Structure formats: structure tokens, C-alpha cells
Amino acid sequence: DAGVTQSPTHLIKTRGQHVTLRCSPISGHKSVSWYQQVLGQGPQFIFQYYEKEERGRGNFPDRFSARQFPNYSSELNVNALLLGDSALYLCASSPWSRSTGELFFGEGSRLTVL
Amino acid sequence: AQTVTQSQPEMSVQEAETVTLSCTYDTSENNYYLFWYKQPPSRQMILVIRQEAYKQQNATENRFSVNFQKAAKSFSLKISDSQLGDTAMYFCAFMKQAFGNEKLTFGTGTRLTIIP
Questions:
Q1: I want to staple B23 with a disulfide (CB 3.0 to 4.6 A). Which of A17, A28, A80, B92 is the partner?
Q2: Mean pLDDT of B92-112
Q3: Which residue in B68, B85, B86 sits closest to B77, CA to CA?
């Protein structure tokens, strides 16, 4: 079975640009979360989505937005990129129902902002 | 708000030895989960072990075990008979146990190197 898949794996943008990152959860998983991992730090929670609704939001500016589609895949959008947005962006999924708290992570999208 | 602290940025140990990674946390919640996640150089984060706060018995998964001290808010990970494949970043993480909540709060991680 396929795990959580993310695309693109690497990308380079310049300041002020916009980026869209994509995530496909494990088949049967209905909840998707996004995390930002700056080099040398632990992941920071950005968003959680379930059934296309936002269920949680971390302490990130409004430049960050996300959505979830009917097939449970998700997009993370970041506008007006800053150098500090350079990070590994991780997507995680869970079945939601009968949740044990375990999240299943993708390999991430490495964003570099120049 | 919850905080998770890992005070050991880096550790190294000889293959086959035992190593313990430390983690402390702060919360006012009574029901929660604690996790250790492993992030190998290939980057994909995987779950090592999970503990539910209401359970007094320490969780074990093969060579991995935890020492959960709820009153002290301490959650250490012991790796026995360490193997080269254990080389990775290890993150301690907290999740409040509440319907619909799946927010993980991570520590800063411990880079573990297993020396052949």
C-alpha cells in the first residue's frame, strides 16, 4: 500500500513568489495535517483538515493557507514567500476514526526561498 | 500551551550498546499521548513508540522501551542492542487526547549516531 505521498520533493522559489505543495494521504485516511520543519528544529504544526474542514491551525501568518479535496488529498499554499519560509514541509495523515493519535508522515517537500 | 524539551542535541553510542534519550514536557492536560518519532536521513518520520498518559505501564516495542514518569513529566526512550539502522533524529512529541485533535507538539530532537 502506498504511504503518504507529497509533491514536489524539492523546489526553489524567490522572495515574494507563491508556492503550492500537494499531499495524498494513505488510502482510507481522512485527516491530513501539515507541519513546517526548519533545519535543526522539530516540526511545527500548521494546519489540520478533516472532511474538507479546518480542524486546527497553528501560529502561522495568513500567508499560509490550505484546503482538502473530496478525495481527502490536500494542498498547502504559501503567498509572498520570505526567506524564513525555507523549510521541509511535512504532510501527515490519519484514519481519524478509532484514532490512536499516530500520524503517518510523508517524506516532505523541501522548499528553498532565495 | 504544551512544551516539549529534549536537552540532548546529539548522542552517539557503540553498536549493540544501550542508549537512553531524554524528554520532558509541560502541560496542564490530564489525558494525552506521548510519542517518540524517528526521522532517518531519508527524512520520512516514523513512529517508534507511543504511550497513553492514563496507562501506568511503560510501553515497549521490541528493543525500544520508555520510562514514563507522569508526575515528573518525563518520558525517556531506551534503545537496547542498538543497531546501525537506529541512526536518525529522534523527536519526542505530545498530543492532547481530545476528539478531533491531532496536533503534535514536537521537541527539538536528538541526533543519534550508532558507531560500528
A1: B92
A2: 92
A3: B68
The residue in chain A having the minimum alpha-carbon distance to the alpha carbon of residue B5 is A42
Distance CA A43, CA B90 (A): 12
Cβ contacts of A55 on chain B, cutoff 8 Å:
100-102
Q: Cβ contact (<8 Å) for A42 and B103?
A: no
Write down how long chain A is.
114
Reduced DSSP (H G I as helix, E B as strand, rest coil) percent helix, strand, coil of chain B, to 5: 5, 50, 45
- Give me the phi and psi of A83, to 5 degrees please: -55, -35
d(CA B84, CA B45): 17
Q: In B14-116, where does DSSP find H-type helix?
A: none
Question: Grid coordinates standing for A91?
Answer: 504532510
The C-alpha atoms of residue B114 and residue B19 are separated, in whole angstroms, by 10
Q: Per residue in A93-108, pLDDT tens?
A: 998 766 678 899 999 9
At A3, which amino acid appears? G
